Structures are given as structure tokens and as C-alpha cells.
Amino acid sequence: MSLFCKIEAETEVLQAPSEKVYEFFKLRPYDLTKFPSTNIQSANLLEGDWGTKGCLVRWNYSYEGKAISDKEMVEAIDDKNRSITWKMVEGHLITKIYKSFKAVIQVTPKGDDGCVVRFIMEYEKPNEETMDPHGKLQFSLNLCKEIAGYLMEEQSQVAP
């Protein structure tokens, strides 16, 4: 018996405008390889163009001490609501743990220079004993603070 599940959480990102954070997730996810704490070795575009529906990306990273290679496709992009849906099509999460896995990222403006980033993970567990991906969700939330710092540093290098 399969179990369809969903977990979600959000984090406030201060000093990073929503359009910049959304643009990062949409057009520059490969820059995640620049963050040592992510353990992402590479993000290779296999099909399509960055920031377009249907683009296919191979991620190579370390998680819990294991080398992992996943392939994800951008299933949906909603620029009006600043939302991106990634669907796992091959790799560790769907061959070893879940029957299906999607991650939705939504960025909402907050104040003049901040935003709220919501992560929604939808997945199908093969049985009740399969753990929920709380670690992956927490990793995603923590990543937002690094993205904010990266964008601030990038902006300070451009400013006169």
C-alpha cells in the first residue's frame, strides 16, 4: 500500500529581495555548487534551458556521507506566484526511498528587502515505515540563509 504525503515549511529571508531569490532558484541553481555546506559537486543541465519548464538537471552531491546522483525536471514554473516545481525522475530518492518525489519552492515578498521562502515536498512512501524527508526539508530551509548571504555579497561587489 502506497502513502501519498506532503510536508512543508517556510523561512524568512532578510535583506534579499524576493525577485532576486526567485531568480536564483529559477535561473541559477547551478550556483549552489559554490556553497561548501551544500556538498553539491555539480549541477549539469542535460536538456532544455535553465529557468524553463521541462529542463532536466543531473545533481551530484553527498548526503549523510554517501555520493548521490539524482536527475530532476522542472515540472512547472509560475512567475506570477514565484513558484517552481521540481520532479525527481531518477536517482536515490525514488529508487531507494520513495516511489515519487516533488519539491515546490515558492518565494513571497515581505517588507522592502526581504521575502519568505516556502518549501513543499510531496512524495509517495512505499509503506508506513518509510521516514518522511524532514532532513531534506531542513537542509532546504538552511540553504536560504546561504543564498541570501551570497546575493548580498554579489550585490556589494556590483555597487559603486
From TrEMBL:
SUPFAM superfamilies: Bet v1-like (SSF55961). SMART domains: Bet_v_1. Residues 2-154 form the Bet v I/Major latex protein domain. GO terms for biological process: defense response. This is Bet v I/Major latex protein domain-containing protein. Gene3D superfamilies: 3.30.530.20. InterPro entries: Bet_v_I/MLP (IPR000916), MLP-like_ligand-binding (IPR051761), START-like_dom_sf (IPR023393).
